[in-house]
Design goal:
Blueprint lengths: L2 E5 L4 E5 L8 E2 L6 E2 L3 E13 L2 E14 L3 E4 L13 H13 L2 H8 L3 H18 L7 E10 L3 E8 L4 E7 L3 H9 L3 H6 L2 E5 L2
Parallel strand pairs: 2-6, 8-11
Antiparallel strand pairs: 1-2, 3-4, 5-6, 6-7, 8-9, 9-10
Helix pairs in contact: 1-3, 2-3
Length: about 200
C-alpha cells in the first residue's frame, strides 16, 4: 500500500496499491514469468466497506511483453478482468442478492441497478463454468412469465437435485430443443422421466 485517503464527509476510503520494483509477473495466457514492461492506466475497484465507508482500491496494473502473446496486462488477484469490483465485494453482493430483491440490494450495497445485474451475470457465468455436466435422470420442464406483455421463459430443472439446468426464451418446442441439443448421447439415454407443465 502506498497511500490511503480518508474522506469523512464523503464517507469514502481510497487505497492505492503498488508493487515492488523487482517483481516478476506471469503472462495471463501462457503463465511464462516475465519482467515488467509498463503499466496500464490507473483503475479503481470497489472493495468491502471499512467502518461503513465505501472503500475503493486503486492500482496501475503491470503489463508484460510475452514473445508469444505480445504486450498483455497481468491478472490481478483481487478482481476478475474488466470488473469494477473486488472478488470479496462481489461475494458479499451475491450473498445480499440471494436474500433480497435487486432494489433492496442496491440500497444496502450502494450500487446501481446495472451494477447489481452485472454482478449477477458474472456470478452465473462463473457458476456455469464450474458446473460439471452429469446425467439428469428426472427433469421438470415449466414455463415462467418473465415480464409484463406475455414474455415467457422455459425452465428445465433436475427434479432430484433441485437445480436449474437450462433457461430459454419463449415457451415453444424450440425452447426445449435447445436443451436436448446440448446433451451428449449418454445424457440423453440417461433421462428416465420428464414432468412437463407447459401451455
Amino acid at each position: 500500500m502506498s497511500r490511503v485517503n480518508l474522506d469523512v464527509n464523503g464517507q469514502r476510503v481510497d487505497v492505492w496499491a503498488e508493487h515492488p520494483e523487482d517483481a516478476a509477473w506471469a503472462c495471463p495466457q501462457c503463465s511464462r514469468t516475465l519482467p515488467l514492461y509498463d503499466h496500464a492506466e490507473e483503475r479503481t475497484w470497489r472493495h468491502l466497506d471499512s467502518c461503513q465507508f465505501q472503500t475503493h482500491l486503486h492500482a496501475r496494473i503491470p503489463r508484460v511483453e510475452c514473445g508469444e502473446h505480445g504486450v498483455v496486462q497481468i491478472l490481478v488477484p483481487w478482481a476478475e478482468p474488466r470488473s469494477r469490483f473486488t472478488l470479496l465485494f462481489e461475494r458479499l453482493a451475491i450473498d445480499v442478492l440471494r436474500q433480497c430483491d435487486v432494489s433492496g440490494a442496491t440500497r444496502i450495497l450502494r450500487i446501481s441497478w446495472d451494477e447489481a445485474w452485472g454482478l449477477m451475470e458474472r456470478a452465473v457465468t462463473r457458476g456455469r463454468q464450474r458446473k460439471v455436466r452429469t446425467v439428469v435422470r428426472r427433469i421438470g420442464v415449466d414455463e415462467k412469465a418473465a415480464a409484463k406483455g406475455h414474455r415467457y421463459l422455459t425452465l428445465v430443472c433436475d427434479l432430484d437435485e433441485g437445480t436449474v439446468e437450462h433457461i430459454a426464451e419463449d415457451r415453444k418446442q424450440e425452447s426445449l430443443d435447445g436443451y436436448y441439443a446440448g446433451l451428449t448421447t449418454e445424457q440423453l439415454d440417461g433421462i428416465e422421466a420428464v414432468a412437463m407443465d407447459m401451455w
